[in-house]
Amino acid sequence: MAVCRALLERVEHHAQALASQTPVVRVRSLRLEIGRLANIEIDALEFCFGAAARGTCAEGATLEIFRTPGRAWCTECAEEVSVESHLDRCPECGSGMLVPCGGDQMLLKGMEVV
């Protein structure tokens, strides 16, 4: 729920900025990019979003979610590799000594307003 509230704060901020240029009635959809290492459960985010959005400009908005791969640096073979979770091993050398270096964020990539 906290992630949804933070997202909605950002959405309302952007909607207010847009309203100074064009009248914004409501947000119709949001495009999100969520990395595999972001520790965000997509089903929980979608479930909570509807409840958190009640009474905001995003009430009734849909979520378009795009997953991005996780990236990690292997300290053993010095390669940047693609990973699906924090528990993965290096696909190049099998080491468990990976340092996350990407795919651990949630980005608001766009929103459709009417």
Architecture overview:
The protein is α+β, with helices and mostly antiparallel strands. The chain has a domain at about 1-70 and about 105-114: hypothetical protein PF0899 fold (2-Layer Sandwich), CATH 3.30.2320. The chain is about 25% helix and about 35% strand. The strands form two sheets. It has a three-stranded mixed sheet with strand order 2-1-6, covered by helices on one side. Strand 3 (about 70-75) and strand 4 form a beta hairpin. Helix 1 (about 1-20) crosses helix 2. The longest helix is centred in the N-terminal third of the chain and has 18 residues, at about 1-20. The relative contact order is 0.26.
Runs in which pLDDT lies below 50 for 5 or more consecutive residues are: none
Number of helices: 2
The CATH architecture name of the domain at 2-69 and 104-113 reads: 2-Layer Sandwich
Number of extended strands: 6
> What overall geometry do the principal axes of the alpha carbons give?
elongated
CATH topology of the domain at 2-69 and 104-113: hypothetical protein PF0899 fold
Q: Could you tell me the strand content as a percent range?
A: 25-35%
Strand order of the largest sheet: 2-1-6
Terminal CA distance = 25 Å
Q: What assembly state would you assign to the polypeptide chains in this entry?
A: single chain
Q: Main beta sheet, described? A: 3 strands, mixed
Helical coverage, percent range: 25-40%
- The Rg value, from CA coordinates, equals 18 Å
At the first level of CATH, what is the class of the domain at 2-69 and 104-113? Alpha Beta
Order of helices and strands: HEHEEEEE
Average pLDDT, all residues: 93
Query: How does the helix and strand content classify structurally?
Result: alpha+beta
